[in-house]
Structure formats: C-alpha cells, structure tokens
Amino acid sequence: MSPYLLSPAAQLDLEQIWDCTCRRWDVDQANGYLRELQRAIELVAVNPKIGQSCEEIRHCYRKLAAGSHIPYFRVMPEGVVDVVRVLHQRIDVDRRL
C-alpha cells in the first residue's frame, strides 16, 4: 500500500463520524462505515488520480466520494497522499477547508 497521512483535522473528522454513526445506529454500523471510508482512503493512496480534481476549492486538492462523506486530499511532492479533511457531502466545503 502506498503511504498516506491523515491531518489532525481528518483524524478528528473520522472520530466524529464514528461517534455520530454509533449514536444514530450502533457500534457495528459505525465500525463498518469507518472501514468503508478507510478503504476509500487506501484506494486513493494507491492511485490518487482516481480522485476528482477540486481546484475550484483549493489548489492541488482532489476528492473521492465514499458513502455520505468525501475525503479531500492532496498528493505531496514525494508521492504521499495527505488526507486533509473527511467531510459530509452536504457540508459547505469552502468554510471547512
């Protein structure tokens, strides 16, 4: 697997997603959804070009929808994928990035 980094904000996003999912449904659902998000991030780490460019939001940023959330990332010069945020699809991205 190619290397990737989770920013502190992305780590917090994932924790909050787990908490919200667990409260709304249950632990199994929260764990399963987090695995789905993790698989999407790992897929991006292996092949960053599968993500869609979102230059209109931030220079060099890309995104890939996963469930109801969207990991936003950039590829660093050394090839490492830096996951900046994991935001709900309905969030005002301009205010969060």
Automatic annotation (TrEMBL):
The keyword Ion transport does not apply. InterPro entries: ParE1/4 (IPR028344), RelE/ParE_toxin (IPR007712), RelE/ParE_toxin_dom_sf (IPR035093), TA_system_RelE-like_toxin (IPR051803). Signal peptide: none annotated. Pfam families: ParE_toxin (PF05016). Keywords: Toxin-antitoxin system. Gene3D superfamilies: RelE-like (3.30.2310.20). Belongs to the RelE toxin family. This is Toxin.
